[in-house]
Design goal:
alpha/beta; 7 helices; 7 strands; 196 residues; 37% helix
Length: 196
């Protein structure tokens, strides 16, 4: 089984819900399984439990993965600081090239259509490029990308949850998140030389 790491930060649960859909897409690919991980909030007390029952990511998760899908809420058009802090601590992995040649994608959630739905995934891909990862996006052959009135970009899956609201993923957001997970998993299989 190839492990695909779905690594995210979520403060209010919207990004975590999208992460679970990405993981469903990964799990739908024969021979692949999602490893769902999060990162702690900045300033969190040592030993604090991870939200939503997810485990905190370690460098071993990055070493072991065959692919990575990275998720963050939009923070002024950028990824959230806790996720960036995690990647700031991966210099030793960069020096040894453990992520080089592995496929990677990105997903995000935000409160408005134009608040960073495209810039945030693009920004999340920058450290992955430095690690030598191979980027996987969402092409317009994915029908939901042309049909969505919510989230979804060629740069990665996304969702929109207006501030202060709770709402279900719309069908196109769910479909695109699952498609992204499946695309990264299928690319990992091809790169590993695993048939079908």
């Amino acid at each position: 089984m190839l492990d695909i790491l779905v690594l995210y930060y979520s403060r209010h649960g919207a990004t975590a819900e999208l992460a679970r859909q990405v993981a469903r897409g990964v799990d739908g690919v024969a021979g692949c399984q999602a490893r769902l991980r999060t990162v702690p909030a900045l300033g969190a007390a040592a030993g604090s439990p991870a939200p939503d029952g997810a485990a905190f990511a370690t460098h071993d998760d990055l070493r072991a993965c065959a692919g990575l899908v990275l998720g963050s809420p939009v923070r002024f058009g950028n990824m959230a600081a806790p996720l960036m802090a995690f990647f700031d601590g991966t210099s030793s992995l960069w020096l040894t090239g453990v992520l080089e040649g592995k496929p990677a994608g990105a997903f995000t959630s935000g409160s408005t259509q134009h608040g960073g739905q495209e810039t945030t995934p693009l920004g999340m891909l920058l450290p992955l490029l430095h690690h030598g990862m191979l980027l996987v996006g969402l092409p317009f052959t994915e029908p939901a990308l042309s049909e969505t009135t919510g989230g979804g970009t060629p740069y990665g899956a996304s969702r929109i949850v207006p501030q202060g609201e709770r709402r279900e993923l719309v069908p196109a957001e769910r479909a695109l998140a699952q498609a992204l997970g499946a695309r990264v998993a299928n690319m990992a299989k091809k790169l590993a030389g695993v048939a079908g």
